[in-house]
Design goal:
With about 375 residues, the chain is α/β, with parallel strands linked by helices. Helix content is about 50%, strand content about 10%. A hairpin with an 8-residue loop joins strand 8 and strand 9. The structure holds adenosine-5'-triphosphate and magnesium ion (MG). Adenosine-5'-triphosphate (ATP) binds next to helix 4 and helix 12.
Length: about 375
């Protein structure tokens, strides 16, 4: 707060209303710069503190899961209920919905949280290597096995194993996994004795396992073993209320990471995010925000900083003309959607030539540029 008419009362009021400091004119430039620096530092520390708190919380039992939609609350409730026991949990959901995040949450909320959490991506490890990755091997078990190797299952003893993309697992390995689940023991490749282990299994898949069972690429008996407590995480497009919260969370996260002051997001930009179909779910949203923060030099992220597939934006908008609020707002939204679609069409037709597109649409070049910017159309 800066004023030429400083009194004690106004100073007190300003500070009460949230001013960082109170300066009376004439002021000293160096002093002002110092204050600004201090204010920015305070803001940065506040954001850092928030994130650290989240991180601590996630280490000590209450992992940070953002969202207040019914869909996500139901998932969170199920996780709290199932976490304390040893029940096998199957997490289902599209790519990027947070399956790994929830798997970690289950582990952190369980009495095993001091023991290891071992994620295994069944799709990422080559089939020939997966068996020795999981079960380990004895020296000389096969060519190249010149030392004993302890497998992931053994490493995870008393902790939690997260079997990601379980539907991609090879049929022969599925049989071995079934045995681990039934007998709670493993055998190293090339080994002779069984080793008792105590594991909590959390599995995840973004594919329809039941279909895989029908197609005989997934063992039915294993499916029953895994499908004890299935939890389906709804796609982001079905829980739009979570989008503003997630956007804010990621803006904070990336501003902090990039050591810039925390930015705002404009209403238009947020509307675009809310209406986008997000095939890659939360991960795609996170990447989009990260890109936006890099592109945005000012204090506010706007539609122009959001690079998304324009056709998908439009298709989704059409289904989202508001059915409440004033007629004027509805008309404005409908116009925005219709114009966006027309502009994209014209730009496609002219292969991105904006000056020719403006002729086609019979508006001035300047009007077209403004609209492209306002509507967040990626040329
Ligand atoms: N509700 C949420 N709150 C906060 N962050 C989330 C939430 N859901 C997902 N994320 C974040 O989104 C990213 C993707 O989540 P995650 O890796 O758990 O997805 P996934 O379902 O395992 O995806 P895939 O099937 O592609 O492996 C992660 O960075 C995760 O932290
Ligand atoms: Mg994953």
């Amino acid at each position: 707060m800066m004023t030429a008419f400083g009194t004690i009362e106004t100073a007190v009021t300003a500070m009460k209303e949230g001013a960082f400091d109170f300066i009376t004119k004439p002021f000293d430039t160096d002093h002002l710069l110092l204050l600004i620096r201090r204010a920015l530092e305070t803001q940065r520390l506040r954001a850092a503190n928030l994130l650290l708190k989240d991180e601590l919380a996630s280490k000590f039992g209450a992992p940070k899961i953002i969202g207040k939609s019914r869909g996500i609350s139901e998932v969170a409730q199920k996780i709290q209920k199932v976490a304390p026991g040893k029940t096998t949990v199957l997490l289902l959901g599209e790519s990027g919905t947070g399956k790994e995040l929830f798997a970690r949450a289950i582990h952190n909320l369980s009495p095993r949280n001091e023991e290891p959490f071992v994620p295994i991506n069944c799709a990422a490890i080559p089939r020939e290597l997966l068996e020795s990755e999981l079960f380990g091997h004895e020296r000389g078990a096969f060519t190249g096995a010149d030392a004993r190797k302890v497998g992931k299952f053994e490493l995870a003893d008393r902790g939690t194993v997260f079997l990601d993309e379980i539907a991609e697992m090879d049929l022969s390995l599925q049989a071995k996994l079934l045995r681990v689940l039934q007998e709670e023991e493993i055998e190293r490749v090339g080994g002779v004795k069984s080793i008792k282990i105590d594991l909590r299994i959390v599995a995840a898949s973004n594919k329809d396992i039941e279909k895989a069972v029908e197609e005989k690429s997934f063992r039915e008996d294993l499916w029953y073993r895994l499908n004890v407590f299935p939890i389906t995480i709804p796609p982001l497009r079905d829980r739009k209320e979570d989008i503003p919260l997630l956007a804010e969370y990621f803006i904070n996260k990336y501003c902090l990471e990039m050591k810039t002051a925390v930015k705002d997001i404009s209403k238009e930009a947020l509307d675009i995010l809310i209406n986008y179909p997000w095939k890659g779910n939360v991960r795609e949203l996170e990447n989009c925000v990260e890109r936006g923060i890099i592109l945005c030099d000012g204090n506010t992220m706007t539609a122009e900083h959001i690079a998304l597939n324009a056709q998908a934006v439009v298709e989704n908008c059409l289904r989202n003309i508001p059915l409440e609020g004033s007629l004027e707002e509805t008309a404005k939204e409908a116009t925005r959607i219709a114009e966006t679609q027309r502009i994209i069409g014209a730009l496609k037709e002219t292969k991105g030539n904006k000056s020719r597109a403006s002729e086609l649409l019979r508006v001035s070049y300047k009007t077209l540029l403004t609209k492209i910017k306002d509507y967040g159309i990626e040329s």
